[in-house]
Amino acid sequence: MATTTAYQVPANLSPTAIANTSSLLRIVALALISAAAIASRLFAVINFESIIHEFDPWFNYRATKVLASEGFYAFWNWFDPTAWYPLGRVVGGTIYPGLMATSGVIFYALKAINLPVDIRNICVLLAPGFSALTAWATYMFTKEMKDESAGLLAAAFIGIVPGYISRSVAGSYDNEAIAIFLLMFTFYAWIKALKTGSAFFGTVAALFYFYMVAAWGGYAFITNMIPLHALALILMGRYSGRLYVGYSSWYAVGTLASMQVPFVGFQPVRTSEHMAALGVFGLLQIIAFAELVRSHVSSKQFRALLFASVIGLGLLGTAGIVGMTYKGWIAPWTGRFYSLWDTGYAKKYIPIIASVSEHQPTAWPSFFMDLQFLIFLFPAGVIMCFRQLRDEHVFVIIYAIVASYFAGVMVRLMLTLTPVVCVAAAIAFSTLLDTYLNPEQPEEETPSAAVPSTAAPSETSSAKKGKKAAPAPATLAELVSNATGPESTKRKTGIFGLDTRLLVILNALGMLVFFVWHCTWVTSSAYSSPSVVLASANPDGSQHIIDDFREAYYWLRQNTPEDAVVMSWWDYGYQIAGMADRPTLVDNNTWNNTHIATVGKAMSSTEEVAYPILRKHDVDYVLIIFGGLIGYSGDDINKFLWMVRIAQGVWPDEIQEPNYFTRTGEYKIDDQASQTMKDSLMYKMSYYRFAELFGGQQAVDRVRGQQVPKTGPTLDYLDEAFTSENWIVRIFQVKKEDLLGRDLKSANSFDQGKKKKRSKPSSRRRAIL
Amino acid sequence: MLGPWRSSVSFFFLAIAPFVSAGHSFENTAIVRTVELGGTVVHVTTTYAVKALEDGSNIYTIALGQKEHEATSALTAKIKGQMAPLEVEKLGAQDGDFQLYDIRLPGYLKAGGTTNLVVETVQTHVTYPYPEEASQKDGQSLKYEADLLVLSPYDTAVQRTKIRSPFPQIHSYTEPNVEFTEDAPVTKSGATLTYGPYKNVFPSANKHFVAEKQQRIYVHYSYDHPVLEIVKLERAAEISHWGANLNIQDNIHLRNAGPRLKGHFSRLEHQSQAFFQRSAPHMLPGLTLHLPAGIRDVYFYDLIGNVSTSQLRTAPSVPKGSQNTQFSVLELKPRYPLMGGWNYSFTLGWDSPLADSAGWDQDLGKWIVGVPVMTVIPGTVIDEEELKIILPEGATEVEFFAPFPALNDELSTAVTYLDTTGRPAVTLRYKNLTDTHAGIVYVAYKVPFSAHLKKPLAVATALTGLFVLAFVWKRVDTRIQK
């Protein structure tokens, strides 16, 4: 006995006791993981406050408020006249309502039990809450891949991994907040449907797929992943009735359900993105039919004929889809899709997409930053999947390959990679722990000693040990499998002694500890800033809040007419609508390129050119972000070239990017700046009276580290209306036309007492004399 | 039970009273009116030296001009040197020219008996910025308009009005022509204007006099503090016996009622003024509020979130019954400096121990809780207030005692935080409140012990129900096929 186990294990434990204990431990572990997942996302609330972050969440929040205050149907039919002024926006038909509906349901449910919670707090805490559900869904998914212990590890990983936290901190009220849970749960249900051949789980997958479609544009990932998996299985010769039932029930119910979302509508049958799913569905029907016929017919020739006809039908279907695409009945791939294959595509053809930082290709350090040691375990886990290569392992392998590619192309798609990394890493890590925690030692050269009696205690021990480490490695499934037949398979390979075990386990635990430390640090320092509020430190180390955005937005809200139209670059559209509650020209829903280009043109033209544009769009206020005083680098001057580029795309004759550079091709704002740059509205508004602040000393722009000309720009057609405390937000009012019919420039110089320059001084009087 | 002070019966009697009692039974030997100018609030003190002409006279009638009456938000009458306020009854409308009030003197005066009556009134919205617009560099000046003569239904031997400005600079004032004096109708010394003395003014509380002799005067003076106005104050006070907590939350809509900002706000100008410590007088950088002692969890936010620019120094709770001299001081800054004509709305709230403001009345067998009507911002008028006091769930026999009558009151039900039947709530509405109205509304109610158990029972029942359902669902086999 002592020779075959590495360490002492308790005997005489009944299997029920073991089963109950491990079940309880799993529940406790999952509860703790959920708590950790929620708690680690609350840095933003604790360091700052319960506030909506970033840009897009402000729109979601605003829409949710409409839903909460006016009910679902008003929300569904909501036409927002204040966005995209003067066009307006049909909100109900142009959004994924899943997120708002979720918050709305929670809000009404709490209200129904007389527990009134502010809708803002529901929105803020929705993402952390759903992250706990994600951890659970990942547990369920990984459990199907390996076992419960791997599931717990995966749940722990996804609970705190920065790659997912970056999109789900408290206040990050965006579609991704609930989408990752839906993604994982749909995949779990799909795997379950595939494994059991159950139409029930196929329908569950379809329903969660519908929820996902209603919640996030990234549903297309599921739409293509599941068919890809199914196709791979077919090509591997693994067609089965289970696959047929699972896929068909998912596709039929899921597609019909997804078409109920107004924003999706008939896309599932009319766009190329969805054709893979339809094609595989058709293929499955053909194969099923062929299988049916084959089971009834035995003739070899007939079989060959059947084979040919199946291939022929398949080809015909593909040709049909291609033909319909050519005919235009099926919409071809969209530009966003192309930019996934050609990273330079967006920059050439759709500058708006390229101008968003999260659409840039991923830099490799961010893989480590977001996933830390999981990124090393990830390939190992994928290879582990090849060992058994059951149907569900194929899914993980395909998911891993596809998501790795996408994550490399676009920063924001790191989010879809993260779950599979957690799953694969958990499989690898749990295999490692299984191997090294297993108390059984391989047999030495001596011919077989009596092993049978040791079998039962050894497994109990492994279960027992599992309790100590947070991830319980040996659980029921393993226990049972080991208990049934260890005698026949005497282990030839394995680990001898305790020292090797301790060395590896301690090392592995050390990695886990560093992982937790890293996640906490990244979350607190990088991903928990609301970006609406900036933090800096006072000289004594206490936190100082720079609250310029809200200062200016609130000023707009309280002290301007309710219908005053505010023009700003589209980044701030949602925030202005949400916080200042004023109509905006463009916002983060970048659906109208021309409108955005119009704003870009107004910003990059001279005052004389911009003024008619502003007046035609009823603009009352122009809002810009200027970081030159305190060194806030995300300001409009730094984004200015994108405005120029986007405007140039529509008016190539009037706006040319090279004009905004110095002769040596540098982007400068000091004395050497080009005249076009200095005359542009954006430059003038940014530096209006900025140099005077320095009281005669050399004014320095702290973002660009350049010296600002001493005589600053003057404005004739606009007037400074408000500037925030640190000058980050500057608001200018557009002057109305002069009452006397003069152009505003001469009116202004008249007011300042300047004499009009006359080319021919008093010639007329002389003529009279 | 609502509004025990509102006795319409006595009102009816008093409405006809003046014609019974207010014959010419008095004569004013002197009337001195002192006006303390301010921002939106002006304090007026009028001293009547009264001589009775008949025996047993105890109802003295005073008169306020119509505009004066409309602007008056508080009126108290006292005998000079005494603290106890006298009973004042407003009489019926007098054709829109003036308003009469009957003051019941503490004793009966014999013929020839004299007394000194002090009437203090607070006027709101009697000043307005002039010029109406001021740029960031300009000063701030206000105009005060008032009636020249103090009206009275009795003969007046001599009367004068003193108008005092808080700042020395008086730009201009009316120099009226008055028939009751031979000397200069008005004299100015420093920051004080004196209209009068005007001698032998015959009974003036009648239509003829108001039409013929009364004049309007104005004073244009410099005022170097921001002129503030709270357009709307919504105060909700929630009493919780379970939490031993009184939560008070104010939704405040603050407005700078000074001259409108001419042109636009220049941050550069503002910052250089702050640097040289010469800020514009009409600019409000922040407020200092005196909140009750012993408060905790103070919050200050507006429609878009927390406002981080505030400082709070709390004072510990004061034992009940002892003199309260300490306050928690809150210095709050709006998000932006409040220039003339600008608005800022925000929410301010705090928790305080219920024991600090509640007590058990043995005789009534009731709880009595005191809720302050408002937090005083000196010199600021509250145009409209809605005070809502939310009592514990299941409170019965609700009575309340306000320091001064409300415009209207109602009893409603507020449902919150796992309530089953809801909580009774008392809502009082006021208009034009000033710092003189800083009183306490007392609410008395009974809470039976069973009411306290409502919430835990409801929650326990709901949870038990859930568990039973789960239990049943887990135990009952619903499969069709075995």
TrEMBL record, chain A:
GO molecular function: dolichyl-diphosphooligosaccharide-protein glycotransferase activity; metal ion binding
Membrane-spanning segments: 24-46, 90-110, 122-142, 148-165, 177-193, 199-222, 243-263, 275-293, 305-326, 367-386, 393-411, 417-437, 500-518
Pathway(s) this gene product operates in, as recorded in its UniProt entry: Protein modification; protein glycosylation
Disordered: annotated span: 440-470, 750-769
Primary location class: endoplasmic reticulum
Biased composition, class Low complexity, residue ranges: 447-470
Keyword terms, alphabetized: Endoplasmic reticulum, Glycoprotein, Glycosyltransferase, Magnesium, Manganese, Membrane, Metal-binding, Transferase, Transmembrane, Transmembrane helix
Domain annotation Oligosaccharyl transferase STT3 N-terminal: ranges: 25-424
Coiled coil: none
Biased composition (Basic residues): 754-769
Biological processes annotated in GO: post-translational protein modification; protein N-linked glycosylation via asparagine
Cellular component terms per the entry's GO annotation: oligosaccharyltransferase complex
Membrane topology category: Multi-pass membrane protein
Intracellular or extracellular location(s): Endoplasmic reticulum membrane
One Pfam entry name: AglB_core-like
Reaction(s) this enzyme catalyzes, per UniProt: a di-trans,poly-cis-dolichyl diphosphooligosaccharide + L-asparaginyl-[protein] = N(4)-(oligosaccharide-(1->4)-N-acetyl-beta-D-glucosaminyl-(1->4)-N-acetyl-beta-D-glucosaminyl)-L-asparaginyl-[protein] + a di-trans,poly-cis-dolichyl diphosphate + H(+)
Domain of life, per lineage: Eukaryota
Keyword Membrane: yes
Necessary cofactors: Mg(2+); Mn(2+)
E.C. code: 2.4.99.18
InterPro entries found in the cross-reference section: AglB-like_core, Oligo_trans_STT3, STT3_N
PANTHER family: DOLICHYL-DIPHOSPHOOLIGOSACCHARIDE--PROTEIN GLYCOSYLTRANSFERASE SUBUNIT, DOLICHYL-DIPHOSPHOOLIGOSACCHARIDE--PROTEIN GLYCOSYLTRANSFERASE SUBUNIT STT3B
Membership in a protein family: Belongs to the STT3 family.
Record's function text: Catalytic subunit of the oligosaccharyl transferase (OST) complex that catalyzes the initial transfer of a defined glycan (Glc(3)Man(9)GlcNAc(2) in eukaryotes) from the lipid carrier dolichol-pyrophosphate to an asparagine residue within an Asn-X-Ser/Thr consensus motif in nascent polypeptide chains, the first step in protein N-glycosylation. N-glycosylation occurs cotranslationally and the complex associates with the Sec61 complex at the channel-forming translocon complex that mediates protein translocation across the endoplasmic reticulum (ER).
Protein name per UniProt: Dolichyl-diphosphooligosaccharide--protein glycosyltransferase subunit STT3
Organism: Antrodiella citrinella
From TrEMBL, chain B:
Sequence intervals crossing the membrane: 456-473
Compartments, as annotated in UniProt: Endoplasmic reticulum membrane
GO biological process, one term: protein N-linked glycosylation via asparagine
Signal sequence region: 1-22
Key words of the record: Endoplasmic reticulum, Membrane, Signal, Transmembrane, Transmembrane helix
Entry-linked InterPro entries: Ribophorin_I
UniProt xrefs under Pfam families: Ribophorin_I
Chief localization: endoplasmic reticulum
A GO cellular-component term linked to this record: oligosaccharyltransferase complex
Pathway assigned in UniProt: Protein modification; protein glycosylation
UniProt membrane topology term: Single-pass type I membrane protein
Domain of life per record: Eukaryota
Subunit structure, interactors included: Component of the oligosaccharyltransferase (OST) complex.
Role this protein plays: Subunit of the oligosaccharyl transferase (OST) complex that catalyzes the initial transfer of a defined glycan (Glc(3)Man(9)GlcNAc(2) in eukaryotes) from the lipid carrier dolichol-pyrophosphate to an asparagine residue within an Asn-X-Ser/Thr consensus motif in nascent polypeptide chains, the first step in protein N-glycosylation. N-glycosylation occurs cotranslationally and the complex associates with the Sec61 complex at the channel-forming translocon complex that mediates protein translocation across the endoplasmic reticulum (ER). All subunits are required for a maximal enzyme activity.
Family statement drawn from the similarity comment of this UniProt entry: Belongs to the OST1 family.
Entry protein name: Dolichyl-diphosphooligosaccharide--protein glycosyltransferase subunit 1
Organism: Antrodiella citrinella
